[in-house]
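Q: I have 289 residues here and want to know how they pack in 3D. Can you give me a structure?
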Amino acid sequence: MYNHILTITPRIFINSLGSLDSYIYATNNYPILTAEEEKNLSCKFFYKSDIEAAKKLILSHLRFVVHVAKHYSGYGLQQADIIQEGNIGLMKAVKRFNPNIGVRLVSFAIHWIKAEIHEYVLRNWRIVKVATTKAQRKLFFNLRKAKQRLGWFHKDEINMVAKTLGVSIKDVYEMESRMSSQDITLNIPSDTSYNNNSNINYLIKDKTSNFAKLIEKNNWTKFITHKLVNAIKKLDNRSRDIINSRWLNKNNTKETLQSLANYYGISAERIRQLETNAMKKLRLLIEQS
């Protein structure tokens, strides 16, 4: 049922009428309903789901949405898009409006219209969301009005805004900073020098890389290898050969104690003792170097 009402969004009207001015002119030609007419149409839709009654309610209030949307013209967004979002809020209000609550539809719909427009502005004003908390949303749409009246803020004015809007001074400072900033492209054109401060993509930290630790590890490996090579040179020939054959073979093969014992004509136990003594001597030489 609700999807049928969505067919009268302003984008469709604007496209068919050719321009935003034509759309606004058309909305002003829809008659304003009297209280009695509004009540009858609201009852038809509320109790009988009369789509035609809902359309008449919406069409008669389109001019009101245009009026509200004009107050959001300073955010760099298309007025037609803002009106469209406001009309969505109007349609949601019509869907939920109870004619028995004793108020006019316009009084009920204003909150839905502004809510939809606010969400649209916050989603599209900047690449990065400028307001996420309730206090930030309140500041975003009220701070701009205050700045138009006060100009640049000083401490007393910030205190006044915080007190008036019921938010913290810190929130006011932060929102003023966010609204004063600009989006900056992170893309570096191919003909742009890396020294150009207007492009900062190359300055962003890559959290997936740990270049400093890689350099540190590489330097430490070179340092230890250098000390080990110098220490091995100070061993006697047989001890050096046993260490190389057992632990430093370039082919990643490890000679057995028995094969070395056969080569030197001594017992495997004696090879193990020579290996142990050579290891102790290496450790001592590395520590002293």
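Q: Anything worth noting?
A: The chain is about 65% helix and 0% strand. The first helix runs from residue 2 to 5.
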